[in-house]
Amino acid sequence: MPVRKLLDKETLDEWLAEFLARGYLTGSEIRVLEQDDDQDPDAGLIVVDLSRANTISYLQPVTGGEGTWKVTMEPREAVIELGAADLVNLGHEVTVLGSLLCFLESKSRILLEQAR
Hints:
Strand order of the largest sheet: 1-2-3-4
């Protein structure tokens, strides 16, 4: 069974709150949105606004991925130039994004195991 079938906005809100309670520092806004998908109307989507890159990233389960997640980064409309501190801060935001992806995969695999 795809993990997407087991997910809803409430579950993702709980997972996101649990992740953020671990104390990761990020300048990014992270939130759960409803996904416009007629086939999976209850599936959630996590959105991260990378503050230093002026771009939005979407986290979602990989179809048929047995709990694997992916991040999609939207293209920016303009070139950005960053100084050293801003580049380090962007790198930290991306690191936290990767940690969130690993966290979601772990939670998804547990959810799949419990559903079997």
